[in-house]
Write a structure and sequence with these properties.
With 307 residues, the protein is α/β, with parallel strands linked by helices. 37% of the residues lie in helices and 24% in strands. It is elongated, with a radius of gyration of 24 Å. Belongs to the LysR transcriptional regulatory family.
Length: 307
């Protein structure tokens, strides 16, 4: 029995929650997958998978074995990738996590050019606004906006900046009093991004002066594109990134307020950060992706920081 192949088939079966799904992922016959799992269990003398006519579930022994098998497969894949990474051209799989709206609008339109430049690069992109666990979710590089999480086992490098803008539709401003100063926002319907629980404060800074404005409103969302839609529909005032609303402001669909102030929610910053594991320092795959970011229009990037 090819033990490494058996481990891979076992892990895929657990992930896919069934023999047929795992077989499709691996381009194998379902009968081959079941026979290999039978042989693996016989070799170990333990039941790894509970089988029924409706589903396949992992046993207690199988759950423990899965964790170790996953680590072995990841270590083999990383060893292969690091050797391949020594060449001049990025080779192998690169798993990248991007913020949803930022990834869709600012990065996705240019990914085809990256793949055309590096045909041996296998790119997998996940969109999420959550902070991902790079190790457990097998992510090589995570791009985050705002204050990056402080983790002992993760390298966080600032690679660029953006600017947040207070925006409202002209029609909303016609119906309501125009806020002349940041503190006037306390009397307006403010559409807020979900940053957990508690009171949200927009912090304005200008020439060393800082003004903190507790904002309120009847709508919150964890997606900036949804907030943009609400602002466009004349519902209220929002704090949104420039890469999302620059065209709307230029076309006159939105009005930018307090442009002589810099503003961020709570203690967040306007940084763009790259997060990766310490063993990925020097990775040509990560370096190529960060170089690619530095070439596309949009926020101000500082270029490759992984090398």
């Amino acid at each position: 029995m090819d033990k490494l192949l058996a481990l891979r088939v076992f892990v895929e079966t657990v992930d896919a929650k069934g023999f047929s799904s795992a077989a499709r992922r691996l381009s194998l016959a379902t009968s081959s997958v079941t026979r290999m799992m039978d042989s693996l269990e016989e070799d170990l003398g333990a039941v790894l998978l509970n089988r029924s006519t409706r589903q396949v579930t992992v046993s207690a022994a199988g759950a423990a074995y899965y964790q170790r098998a996953r680590k072995i497969l990841d270590a083999v894949a990383e060893a292969d990738a690091q050797i391949a990474d020594r060449g001049d051209t990025p080779v192998g799989q690169l798993r990248v996590s991007l913020p949803v709206a930022f990834g869709r609008r600012c990065i996705a339109p240019f990914l085809g050019g990256l793949l055309a430049r590096y045909p041996k690069l296998e790119l997998e992109v996940t969109l999420t606004d959550e902070i991902v666990d790079l190790l457990s979710e097998r992510i090589d590089l995570s791009i985050r906006l705002g204050s990056a999480a402080s983790l002992d086992d993760v390298v966080a490098r600032q690679i660029g900046t953006f600017r947040r803008k207070v925006v409202a539709s002209p029609a909303y401003l016609l119906r309501h009093s125009l806020p002349a100063a940041p503190l006037d926002l306390a009397g307006h319907e403010c559409l807020r991004f979900s940053y957990g629980v508690g009171q949200q404060v927009w912090t304005f800074v200008r020439d060393g002066e800082e003004v903190q404005v507790p904002v309120r409103g009847n709508f919150r969302s964890n997606n900036s594109e949804v907030l943009r839609e609400l602002v466009m529909s004349e519902t209220g005032i929002a704090l949104l990134p420039d890469w999302l609303v620059a065209e709307d402001i230029q076309r006159g669909n939105l009005t930018s307020l307090f442009d002589d102030w810099s503003v961020n929610p709570n203690r967040a910053t306007s940084a763009i950060s790259a997060l990766f594991l310490p063993n990925q320092r020097g990775s040509r795959r990560i370096g190529a992706f960060l170089d690619f970011l530095g070439e596309i229009p949009g926020p101000t990037y500082r270029g490759d920081t992984a090398r």
